[in-house]
Design brief:
- There is one protein chain.
- This protein is mainly alpha-helical.
- It has a single domain, classed as Phosphoglycerate mutase-like (Rossmann fold), CATH 3.40.50.1240.
- It contains five helices and four strands.
- The strands form two sheets. It has a two-stranded antiparallel ribbon.
- The longest helix is centred in the first third of the chain and has 16 residues.
- It is globular, with a radius of gyration of 17 Å.
Amino acid sequence: MGLQSRGQILYLVRHGQTEFNAAGRWQGQCDSQLTATGQEQAAQVAEILKNSGLDNNATIVSSPLGRAVQTAEIIAAALQTSHPIVFDDRLKEVAMGSWDGLTDAEIEAKWPNARNGMGRNEWFFHSSDGERYEQMLAASSQRSPI
């Protein structure tokens, strides 16, 4: 779904499936390539965007993480965009420190009970050496590059 602001429509797109997604690994800021399924998902999103009226004049803004870049490049190619992709660090996933790239079982084995009492997505900011909520807020308050 698109969000409209100041006469512009903003479409938010998540990257396609990655090797880590398929393996049940938390990515954080680790890089994991898109799977064939992820590439197809990105192509399907590109088709949806084209059918929604986006054309080669669209500006694509992406996280600089590889999985997001791959997804953005597939979409940009399908739209034949005339603008280069804009990369914005504020769109990176939360860095989970030592937990980046691990499965739930691996995290539990190395840090027993560290996530007890927390919901599935509640613990992103709880790794002892990961990004803190306050850091994410500070970074997100920086001015937009577009």
